[in-house]
Amino acid sequence: MSDNLARQFLLREDVVFLNHGSFGACPRPVFEAYQGWQLELEREPVEFLGRRLHDLLRAPREALAAELGCGSEDIVGVLNATTGLNIVARSLDLKPGDQILTTDHEYSALEKTWAYVCRKTGAEIVVVKVPMPLTSEAAFTDAIIAGMTERTRVLFLSHITSPTALLFPIENAIAEARRRGIWSVIDGAHTPGHIKLDLEGIGADFYSGNCHKWMMTPKGSAFLHARPEVQGLLDPLVISHGWTAESKAPGAKGAFGNSPFIDEIEIQGTRDPAPWLTVPAAIQFRKDNDWWGVAAHCHALAQDTARQLGELTGLAPLSSPEFCAPQMVAMPIPECDPLVVHTTLFERYGIEIPVFRWQDRCIARLSVQGYNSRPQMDRLIDALSELLELGAPQIAAQG
Fold it and tell me: Where would I find the Aminotransferase class V domain in this sequence (predicted)?
């Protein structure tokens, strides 16, 4: 990408940052909007938090709903996708013997969330092994449906997986879950701003995603979407001023005149709302800079880099291109000590990229965002070529 675009970000110039997928990176104009909201709050905290906040929170909901294809009354701001999914997981009425159907590609924090829920409720987790490499929507859907039983109450899937950077074709599995009366809960942590979303078209009961990753808001900005028919199932993690004793009654309103779904989750004690309030600014930044065009360039760069590394290692990719996340790719590397490779890439080459073991594979997960360039990809290839060719015996010996 152009140097001018890279200069709009705040990243250190001495680091090749190839890990946007973990925490994102916020462009300068959006960060300035964030600081502007924080300054406005501090100038008159009581007015801002006590009298204005519940009205101010409406604009991010409306802007995000228009961007993601849903009604503004069906989406609410949360701290992160893990929080949104915890709200769902800990609200559903599960009993001993009920099953939560999921895959072997899920994010570890949510694996722990469901394990916690099972310990509390007596429900069970059933893990489907996704056929690999992922090259067929039908094979994916068939594997998920084959795991469904009369005891399945929840289908929990990532839309884009964290460890393997796969774009799961979830729509048909969700439709089958709906037909069987199974709640569908989708981890969309990596999807807003990464792929074009139509939440109503996807049809999941519950969907939570981060804005602070690929949409590039400041950290601590995410959403929970719930279909109107299932919003009444949810309880907030924190009871605060948005809650009312009548919240479960038909047609009930929250304390600030919105639905209980919105008021109970949005108003949960004193916090910094600035990251969520910058959602409109982040959406505008993306429009001003033709970010879907930027993303297309990043996709090509990511795929080309993965192809080059594959030719170097001789290792097959985890999926065909259509099932790989557009700007993020999990690249298999030869057997090694992942921690040593990760640390050496950073300390010797100034490259920030996650390297880890997933099942029986060693993975380097590449993220490509608008501030990255082809020379940076070449630097990564050169570094891995040197490390894996000349340093592999020593690295492997430390495992």
Answer: 46-353
Measured between alpha carbons, how far is 282 from 100 in angstroms, rounded to an integer?
A: 35
Q: What is the DSSP string of 287-306?
A: HHTTHHHHHHHHHHHHHHHH
All structural domains of the chain? 29-285 (3.40.640.10), 290-397 (3.90.1150.10)
Bridge partners of residue 193, in order along the sequence: none
Q: What is the pLDDT of residues 32-84, one digit of tens each?
A: 999 999 999 999 999 999 999 989 999 999 999 999 999 999 999 999 999 99
Residue 389: per-residue pLDDT: 74
The encoded tokens of residue 41 equal 């709050």
Both structure tokens of 111: 């694996």
Residue 208 bridge partners (DSSP): 187, 224
Separation CA 236–CA 349 (nearest Å): 45
Host H or E run for residue 276: helix 274-277
Nearest 5°: phi and psi at 226? -140, 135
Alpha-carbon torsion (371, 372, 373, 375), positive or negative: positive
Are 83 and 237 within 8 A, CB to CB?
Answer: yes
Pairing assessment for the beta strands 361-367 and 355-358 based on DSSP bridges: antiparallel
Distance CA 386, CA 53 (A): 54
- DSSP helix/strand/coil, 114: helix
Extract the tokens encoding 104.
């072997």
